[in-house]
Design brief:
The complex is a heterodimer of chains A (481) and B (490). With 481 residues, chain A is mostly helical. Chain A is built from 20 helices and 2 strands. The two termini of chain A are 19 Å apart. The model of chain A has no long low-confidence stretch (mean pLDDT 88). Classes of the chains: A mainly alpha (481), B mainly alpha (490).
Chain lengths: 481, 490
């Protein structure tokens, strides 16, 4: 149903216009009024969410000569992305202000990152997919380096940029091979060509290898994970929060459209590759995380392990697996938001609160935040009644149903190792005495949202059906069955 | 109809949350009273389960059924039969006792302490009442969280090690079980335990599932050689934690054998019964000797628990009415006796801050009332007739002798070993001349401690003299279970 209407890309247009406006407005604002930019960014997200909701149509719609598609999957993921970015801005307001980063550039770059993610989510062609990815990545490179005087941040930005550029190159190389083999950049047409069984199978498989490598780089799956800990560690926590949350939603859409749709015909080839990535990520991520003393690094390795789990659902290569992986990503993003949210809540001027030691005796200082962090840790470890349990359960079910029972066994053993370091944070918070007696101060909106975020982990852990059902419906409506 | 089982689960949990919300560290009184009322209310709502229970049927009673996660066909499916009903009651009763036992002893973070026990109580009731595998799993895992905190926050000097070991050990087993559950779901299309009882499974599949389930429940029981977390956990846990661990959480492991392993995997159970019986006998005999050598009272009782639980698993895998009923009776009796023993050690520890047998001697001179109570419990722990400890052990030995004389003989050594380690400890701690000045200054039981132990003493004696009401509840269910296990599922 090709249409010339611009309605499907309206949210992106609004976002672009708003980002440019904020950039202009900010130039005329005195330092004391920086919060205007902040609220404008929040307003943009609200309007974006509202437009996405009001223009919602369960039927997929193509726009801009079929370069982008607006299906229910895209709408749902975009909606979650607005939400994640909005929370990120709320959580990091105090943190940014204390470090002189509460500026227009931050909001503009954040919105551009979001725009890149939305383009990725809606992409229906390799070209759009790549453009979205680069827009997102370039904005993030800049954001990581934003803290100019920090050596760690500069190093992280450099690493991120060099490795990210390498990954983009690999991805592009793989895409060009697929283009060569199928003669098209359009995802649907590639899918048809691959399913028809072209004669260029070798080139296709060769291209697939590069594409999967590129994806693994972007996702931070082992053995392409080297940048993740350094970037998570070096970047300002607010930026780490951004990198660790919404982009995972976009990455899910990215993999789904590349492998699940365009190259669905090569299922047996990429299943094997994802299996290796998934296994290595789960084992490496969980084992190395044990040795970390920095929370941000630990959470970075935990991300690697979690992406391995997500791929575990994905490699089932059916609706059951995709919806499990999608639920996993959404649950992970929700948990991740709360985890970095707490880290930033504990930080203050000149104090990052990013060492494990900084969590010592949190239960004495504030039982409530200790409890929220407890929920986060048990959710990451996959212990009921938190949402992390159902996320792990769903991907394990998908893997077993697809006949990979042994993978599921390895996965649970890896998550047992993972439980060890998550428990350590709980141990520090509850079993040890506090050494830091500084009161925990934060804005009311931050506290309310972070509390709601933490309790949502419990709520969706007890009643996971709405979210799970939504993932299934979105995928069904978007043509997966 | 009143949803008694839901009440049994949610009343303590809500009470626990209330305690957390109301309790303040400066004024622990409110937290204590709310916790006590919450625990009593939790016990009260379980009484109808006993009163309205129909002994004549093996069917699930008080069934509640509702959709929970339709995406995976998971239901909020509760029900109890003759096996599980008594444990819901036992657990609710023990919760009242531990709340009361921690009344003055716990001075730091009282609200969190009480709340942890109440929430755990609800979760444990849930595990006993759940008839949906994932619902069971959710309760089974979630109950690790409060216990982890109880050991780690209010425990002894080596509490961190013990808490982490406890958590990871149990998690290891249960994660493999989760994969087993998912596998069964893929075979049968449901998570309902009752449907799983009827699913045909090939022997090799049954054996793999057996390994996954067995690991989970054997760790929880705990069976030799995966028992090493228990002595650590018991020694480091506060008295209340030890009581719940010994009296209730161990029982969930044994309960798993009769609810999951025997009926779902009957062929593998028969095929591997020799293996389980061997492990059980090792626990009974070898761990009995290990208990003999302990210098720490809590450790001694912990090993004695492992030895007694070996009796339970032994009884289950003899596949006879006597054996299974004996095992179940032993579970309940051990719930009373081990709780009482840990409370006794707690009473002494609160005064002396030592659990070493060598630090005591002649306690009877300063604490006569206490010595009398502990005498009774020590006797019950060694299986003296007319105490509850005798009934279960006798039934299991009887069943074992029917199968094979030497099996019964080895099992019966527990009567000697149990008496040896318990009474020898009793002699060294209680009798003799006053060993040192600390013992000389001991004060006898306070009112709270007296009634706490008196309640348990009454239960131990009642069950020892007249076990019929307990056994009657089980008859129909156990007979049905045996008939079911006798049928091959191949």
């Amino acid at each position: 149903m090709p249409t010339q209407s611009l309605l499907p890309v309206l949210p992106e247009i609004i976002l672009l216009a708003a980002a440019c406006t904020i950039l202009l407005v900010d130039a005329f604002l005195p330092d004391a009024r920086r919060h205007v930019g902040f609220w404008l960014a929040q307003l943009t997200l609200l309007v974006g969410a509202w437009v996405t909701l009001t223009t919602f149509d369960p039927e997929p719609a193509l726009a801009l000569s079929a370069l982008v598609v607006d299906d229910m999957l895209a709408d749902l993921l975009k909606f979650f992305s607005y939400f994640a970015v909005s929370l990120m801005l709320f959580y990091s307001r105090g943190y940014l202000a204390a470090r002189g980063l509460f500026r227009g550039e931050t909001f503009v770059l954040t919105l551009f990152t979001l725009l890149g993610m939305m383009v990725m989510i809606s992409a229906n062609s390799f070209l759009t997919l790549y453009l979205g990815l680069e827009l997102q990545a370039l904005s993030l490179y800049a954001m990581v380096a934003m803290h100019r005087r920090s050596n760690d941040a500069s190093e992280a930005a450099m690493k991120y940029f060099v490795l990210g550029a390498l990954a983009s190159g690999m991805l592009l190389y793989g895409m060009s091979m697929v283009y060569g083999a199928t003669g098209s950049l359009d995802i649907q047409r590639i899918a048809e060509a691959v399913l028809r069984g072209s004669d260029n199978r070798v080139i296709l498989t060769f291209g697939l290898v590069f594409i999967v490598s590129g994806i693994a780089f972007k996702l931070g799956a082992a053995p392409y994970h080297m940048w993740v800990p350094d970037v998570y560690h070096g970047a300002p926590t607010a930026v780490t929060l951004l990198i660790g949350t919404a982009p995972k939603l976009a990455a899910f859409a990215f993999i789904l459209r590349l492998l699940g749709v365009a190259l669905a015909g090569l299922e047996f080839d990429w299943q094997g590759m994802l299996m290796v990535l998934s296994l290595l990520s789960m084992i490496l991520g969980n084992v190395i995380a044990i040795a970390q003393t920095n929370v941000k690094r630990m959470l970075a390795y935990s991300t690697i392990a979690n992406m391995g789990f997500m791929l575990l659902g994905f490699l089932a290569a059916n609706l059951n697996g995709y919806s499990a992986a999608m639920f996993y990503v959404v649950a992970y993003v929700l948990t991740s938001l709360a985890s970095f949210g707490v880290v930033m809540l504990l930080s203050r001027e000149g104090f990052e609160a990013d060492l494990l030691e900084d969590f010592r005796g949190l239960n004495q200082r504030s039982p409530w935040w200790a409890f929220i962090m407890l929920l986060v840790m048990f959710s990451l470890a996959g212990i009921p009644p938190t949402v992390g349990f159902y996320a792990k359960f769903a991907v394990l079910e998908a893997a077993v149903a697809a006949g990979f029972t042994w993978l599921a066994v390895v996965a649970v053993l890896a998550s047992l190792v993972g439980a060890f370091y998550y428990l350590r944070i709980v141990k520090l918070m509850y079993f040890d005495d506090a050494t830091d007696t500084e009161p925990i101060a934060a804005r009311l909106d931050n506290r309310v949202l972070l509390s709601a975020n933490g309790l949502a982990l419990l709520l969706f852990g007890i009643l996971p059906q709405p979210l799970m059902g939504l993932c299934v419906i979105a995928l069904l409506q978007s043509g997966f069955d | 109809m009143v949803p008694y089982l839901s009440l049994a689960i949610w009343v303590p949990i809500v009470a626990g949350l209330l305690v957390l919300a109301v309790g303040r560290d400066r004024d622990p009184g409110a937290a204590r009273w709310i916790a006590l009322f919450g625990a009593l209310a939790g016990l009260l709502v379980t009484l109808p389960l006993w009163l309205h229970f129909d002994n004549g049927t093996a069917k699930m009673q008080f069934v509640e059924f509702a959709d929970w996660v339709p995406r995976f066909d998971i239901h909020y499916f509760l029900g109890v039969d003759g096996i599980s009903m008594l444990f819901v009651l036992l657990n609710s009763l023990m919760t009242v006792l531990v709340v009361w036992a921690g009344w003055e002893v716990i001075r730091e973070r009282v609200a969190q302490y009480m709340a942890a026990f109440l929430i755990q109580s609800g979760l444990i009731n849930g595990a006993f009442a759940a008839l949906d595998a994932i619902l069971f799993y959710a309760f089974f895992e979630a109950m690790l969280i409060p216990m982890y905190l109880i050991i780690g926050v209010w425990g002894g000097p080596n509490r961190v090690y013990a808490a982490v070991k406890f958590f990871l050990y149990t998690l290891l087993g249960s994660l493999l079980m989760l994969v087993g559950f998912i596998y069964l779901y893929n075979v049968s299309g449901t998570f309902s335990l009752l449907d799983w009882h009827l699913v045909p499974l090939a022997l090799d599949v049954q054996i793999l599932l057996f390994i996954a389930f067995f690991l989970s429940f054997a760790v929880k029981v705990p069976m030799w050689p995966v028992h090493t977390w228990l002595p650590d956990a018991h020694v480091e846990a506060p008295t209340g934690g030890s009581v719940i661990l010994a009296a209730i959480t161990l029982k969930i492991g044994a309960y798993g054998f009769v609810r999951f392993i025997l009926p779902i995997l009957p062929d593998a159970s028969r095929y591997l019964s020799g293996f389980v019986i061997t492990l059980s006998l090792v626990a009974v005999v070898y761990i009995g000797f290990v208990a003999l050598m302990q210098g720490d009272m809590k450790k001694l009782i912990a090993y004695s628990s492992i030895s007694h639980m070996g009796f339970v698993t032994l009884g289950f895998f003899l596949f006879s009415q006597l054996g299974i009923e004996g095992g179940l009776v032993q579970m309940i009796s051990h719930g009373f006796v081990s709780a009482a023993m840990f409370l006794c050690v707690g009473v002494m520890y609160d005064r002396m801050h030592s659990r070493q047998i060598a630090d005591y001697g002649g306690v009877v001179n300063t604490m006569p009332k206490f010595a009398a109570f502990m005498m009774l419990f020590a006797m019950a722990n060694s299986g003296l007739p007319a105490t509850s400890g005798f009934v279960g052990e006798f039934l299991v030995i009887l069943a074992a002798v029917k199968v094979n004389f030497w099996l019964g003989f080895l099992a019966a050594t527990t009567l000697i070993l149990g008496a040896a380690y318990t009474l020898w400890m009793y002699k060294r701690v209680i009798f003799g001349a006053i060993a040192n000045d600390h013992v000389r200054q001991l004060t006898d039981l306070g009112r709270r401690e007296f009634w706490l132990l008196a309640a348990l003493a009454a239960l131990v004696l009642a069950m020892g003299v007249y076990p019929k009401p307990f056994v009657d509840v089980m008859h129909a269910t156990v007979a049905d279970l045996l008939a079911h296990v006798a049928q091959s599922k191949l």
